[in-house]
Specification:
single chain, alpha/beta, Rossmann fold, seven-stranded mixed beta sheet, 7 strands, globular
Length: about 270
């Protein structure tokens, strides 16, 4: 089955920001409550080491995904770790909450940040994208990777869903999950509650976007082809795979090769 760039409501510019922010809050709650990114800790540490950086820039942050757990775990071995949250549609309330939960670790950009054209002050850092790479069409996705290579930035992309049975099966529970988990999501967004419990449009939007996300995800073959088409791709080491376990995380990581290794391969 080939990738299909289905419509996701939250990508539309006119989509209500309160609904979009609730959607990112919901995904953050899922990621944090079930600690879904725990298996990638070794990969994150490897990327920090390869980047030689203690500054981690998260692109297309949404509500911050499950970054709080990762931040606390990584902080033990990286006491000077600093994380900058960015998004094209910044969820400021969610960013502020992360900042308050983990003082002296998180900061955020208040204005829109294009993941394919990172501002100069965020270039050369360790960059991540959690559960959002599928939002980008192939040409834009390629630009994001090319930007990382051009700015000599280590990049790591993680997708918790894919075009597989487990992801499709999980969609069956989305509407009931929204109804239940909303009771525990903070901050409470009072203006969206009527559209969850009285007129359940938001559970349907979350379900629709979840299905669209699965259809949009890139396969390992598609990611390999994308990486191979980059300018100066050979200057980077690329790893495209998935973690083991019941909830595998698909990932792509890329980091600049050691200069000696590049000289050997080019020579």
């Amino acid at each position: 089955m080939k990738r299909f760039h289905a419509l996701e409501w939250e990508d539309l510019q006119w989509f209500p920001s309160s609904w979009r922010d609730y959607g990112t809050d919901y995904l953050k709650f899922i990621a944090t409550k079930f600690n879904i990114y725990k298996p990638i800790l070794p990969l994150m540490q490897k990327c920090l080491d390869k980047s030689g950086q203690q500054h981690w820039v998260d692109l297309a942050s949404g509500g911050g995904s499950g970054l709080i757990g990762l931040a606390k775990d990584l902080k033990e071995a990286n006491p000077n770790l600093h994380i900058t949250l960015t998004d094209y549609y910044p969820n400021i309330k969610a960013f502020e909450k992360l900042q308050s939960e983990c003082p002296n670790t998180f900061s955020y950009e208040k204005t829109a940040v294009d993941a394919s054209k990172t501002p100069e002050h965020l270039q050369g850092k360790f960059q991540t994208i959690f559960g959002a790479f599928h939002h980008f069409r192939s040409d834009k996705a390629k630009q994001i990777l090319q930007n990382a290579v051009d700015t000599k930035s280590t990049i790591a992309i993680f997708e918790p869903v894919g075009r597989n049975f487990g992801s499709w099966f999980s969609m069956l529970f989305v509407p009931i999950n929204v109804l239940i988990f909303t009771l525990f999501i903070r901050p409470v967004r009072w203006n969206v509650l009527p559209f969850i419990y009285l007129i359940p449009l938001i559970p349907l939007y979350i379900l629709w976007d979840g299905i669209a996300s699965i259809l949009r995800t890139y396969s390992q073959k598609e990611l390999n082809e994308m990486v191979a088409s980059l300018n100066n791709s050979d200057d980077y080491e690329w790893e495209i795979s998935k973690t083991s376990g019941k909830m595998p995380i698909n990932y792509l990581i890329g980091y600049k090769k050691d200069d000696n290794e590049s000289d050997r391969k080019n020579g």
